[in-house]
């Protein structure tokens, strides 16, 4: 088999690029570039057996993040709460709700030893038609909708882990450190809308994991 100068050059460039990426410690975990400092973390929750907790754990493992037992020197994600709310968008002539908006709100706290703590609130919103003649089918549809919204919220948590790279490099959870990475009003698709709000605490103000 003959190799032309062009093919040899291409192979050399590919090999050189792979070597440089490996040498600089770049590792893409799953779909997101999770910092190596967060490759191993603990997960605590308001309910360790809830559906949302299981979804978050599964999403983290899918992105090659090892989940370990809580420890003082291990980063932690604490799921504070999860809840849904509904509001009416339009009415039928009979004054019954025709279109509703369902919002899933999730609050969680990320603690990185020696760096700080930051609390995030992520909301996923979806609108749907409420037909009173198909109440049973709508109930099943809503359950499926809520499950899909939980998956989107869990994905947003993993995405936020990748955005913490700037904070880790700066050695602080100050919002200025990763302001370029923040997107407080991001649309995941034309159907769902995801918003993330963040606050932070310095290491001296940390509280024990609930």
From TrEMBL:
For whether the record's keyword set contains Transmembrane, the answer is: no
Pfam (any one): LptE
Membrane topology, from the record = Lipid-anchor
Q: Which residues form the signal peptide?
A: 1-23
Task: Quote the subunit structure annotation.
Answer: Component of the lipopolysaccharide transport and assembly complex. Interacts with LptD.
The family this protein is said to belong to: Belongs to the LptE lipoprotein family.
Designated name of the protein: LPS-assembly lipoprotein LptE
Organism encoding this protein: Vibrio ziniensis
């Amino acid at each position: 088999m003959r190799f032309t100068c062009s093919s040899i050059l291409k192979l050399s460039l590919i090999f050189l690029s792979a070597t440089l990426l490996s040498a600089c410690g770049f590792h893409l975990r799953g779909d997101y570039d999770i910092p190596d400092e967060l490759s191993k973390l603990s997960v605590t929750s308001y309910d360790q057996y809830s559906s949302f907790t299981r979804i978050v754990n599964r999403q983290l493992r899918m992105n090659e993040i090892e989940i370990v037992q809580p420890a003082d020197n291990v980063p932690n994600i604490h799921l504070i709460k999860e809840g849904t709310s509904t509001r009416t968008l339009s009415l039928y002539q009979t004054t019954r709700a025709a279109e509703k908006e369902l919002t899933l709100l999730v609050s969680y706290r990320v603690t990185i030893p020696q760096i700080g703590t930051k609390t995030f609130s992520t909301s996923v919103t979806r609108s749907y038609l409420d037909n009173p003649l198909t109440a049973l089918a709508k109930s099943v549809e809503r359950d499926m909708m809520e499950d899909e919204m939980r998956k989107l919220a869990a994905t947003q948590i993993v995405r936020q882990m990748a955005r913490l790279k700037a904070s880790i490099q700066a050695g602080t959870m100050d919002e200025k450190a990763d302001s370029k990475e923040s997107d407080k009003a991001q649309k995941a698709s034309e159907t769902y809308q995801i918003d993330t709000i963040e606050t932070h605490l310095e290491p001296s103000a940390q509280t024990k994991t609930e």
